[in-house]
């Protein structure tokens, strides 16, 4: 972890604010947090309770002291398509607006398509700048299951077993900025990215274009936070969080394009709808017809529209319309 913390998720020390935090023991209602409904809906409303405070990666380091700004009370990650209108929305743009700050890895507009939307909520507000401490928060991913960052000298490294890192970093006198690093094969290098991070109080959301991650079926992730006083917690006090913890399997990025649904028309006719992901496309069948699910449109194999569909807040299938016949769907 020591090496990863240098380039990854490091939050600083005992004076990281407030009093000792209380570790979250369960999920929360994301829609009751200080986020706008729009940002909350982007996260899909999926709640995952975090794990216990992590072990420090350096043998002999003191145990961490819980702090509110490094204590996670909930987290999640989901694959979500964004339309051209959605990525053009003001809430998606780099800068400060709507009570939130949107930090971008590189300037420029986002492009419509699939994104991995990851988020976590802390007990206290994330500091966007500090004159004495360094902060880092991150979302680290294993894209393939092979050739990952696994430093033998630091088997409890917060980034162990992953190969691409999206982090939010500040240091004394320098405000928060997004950093993206590729660690495939254990070689760490900066890479260009169109990822953006939304910070709204204690709520943090990372939006990552799917094309930067490869095959979406294979994604596992960990969210991390770490706070120290300049020595990464080797001697001085520190606090932090990992979810899932190092040493247990990474969490799968949830894919709403997986499942079998029974959709019922107003006349009571039942239609079976299946969805699964092939590459970066959501495909399946409506009855006996093979279709692609794309931005609310049901497309046949030729690419022509045969109907439409809607999704629920958690991105599961809500309803379909085929041949002007609407049907509501259940998992």
Plain-language structure description:
The protein is built from three helices and 21 strands. The strands form three sheets. It has an eight-stranded antiparallel barrel with strand order 14-15-16-17-18-19-20-21. Strands 5, 6, 7, 8, 11, 12 and 13 form a seven-stranded antiparallel sheet that branches. The protein is elongated, with a radius of gyration of 21 Å. It folds into two domains: 2-252, no CATH class; 259-330. With 331 residues, the chain is mostly beta strands. The model is unreliable at 1-36 (pLDDT under 50). It has helices at residues 2-7, 37-42, 84-88, and strands spanning 72-82, 95-97, 100-104, 113-122, 134-142, 164-171, 174-182, 189-190, 196-200, 203-209, 220-228, 238-243, 251-252, 259-265, 270-278, 281-286, 289-294, 297-300, 305-311, 317-322, 325-330.
Number of structural domains: 2
The largest pleated sheet is described as: 8 strands, antiparallel, barrel
Low-confidence stretches: 1-36
- Percent of residues in helical segments? under 10%
DSSP summary: helix tally: 3
Rounded average pLDDT: 80
Number of strands: 21
Q: What is the oligomer described by this structure? A: single chain
What is the terminal separation in angstroms? 40 Å
Beta-strand percent range: 35-45%
One letter per element, helices H and strands E, the order comes to HHEHEEEEEEEEEEEEEEEEEEEE
Structural Rg: 21 Å
What characteristic shape results from the CA principal axes? Answer: elongated
Helix-strand makeup class: mainly beta
Strand order of the largest sheet: 14-15-16-17-18-19-20-21
């Amino acid at each position: 972890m020591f090496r990863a913390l240098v380039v990854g998720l490091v939050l600083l020390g005992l004076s990281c604010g407030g009093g000792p935090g209380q570790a979250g023991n369960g999920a929360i209602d994301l829609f009751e947090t200080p986020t706008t409904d729009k940002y909350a809906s982007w996260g899909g409303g999926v709640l995952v309770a975090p794990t216990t405070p992590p072990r420090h990666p350096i043998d002999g380091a003191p145990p961490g002291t819980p702090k509110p700004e490094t204590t996670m009370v909930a987290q999640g990650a989901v694959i979500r398509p964004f339309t051209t209108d959605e990525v053009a929305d003001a809430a998606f743009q780099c800068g400060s607006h709507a009570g939130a700050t949107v930090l971008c890895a590189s300037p420029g507009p986002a492009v419509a398509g699939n994104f991995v939307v990851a988020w976590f909520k802390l007990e206290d507000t994330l500091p966007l700048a500090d004159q004495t401490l360094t902060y880092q928060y991150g979302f680290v991913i294993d894209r393939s299951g092979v050739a990952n960052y696994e430093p033998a000298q630091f088997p409890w490294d917060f980034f162990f077993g992953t190969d691409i890192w999206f982090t939010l970093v500040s240091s004394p006198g320098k405000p928060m900025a997004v950093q993206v690093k590729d660690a495939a094969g254990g070689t760490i290098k900066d890479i260009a990215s169109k990822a953006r991070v939304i910070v709204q109080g204690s709520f943090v959301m990372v939006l990552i274009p799917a094309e930067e991650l490869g095959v979406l079926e294979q994604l596992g992730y960990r969210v991390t936070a770490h706070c120290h006083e300049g020595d990464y917690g080797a001697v001085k006090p520190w606090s932090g969080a990992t979810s899932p913890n190092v040493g247990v399997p990474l969490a799968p990025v949830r894919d709403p394009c997986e499942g079998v649904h029974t959709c019922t028309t107003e006349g009571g006719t039942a239609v079976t709808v299946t969805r699964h992901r092939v590459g970066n496309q959501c495909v399946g069948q409506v009855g006996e017809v093979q279709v692609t699910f794309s931005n609310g449109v049901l497309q046949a194999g030729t690419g022509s529209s045969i109907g439409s569909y809607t999704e629920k807040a958690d991105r599961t299938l809500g309803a379909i319309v085929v041949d002007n016949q609407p049907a509501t769907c259940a998992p």
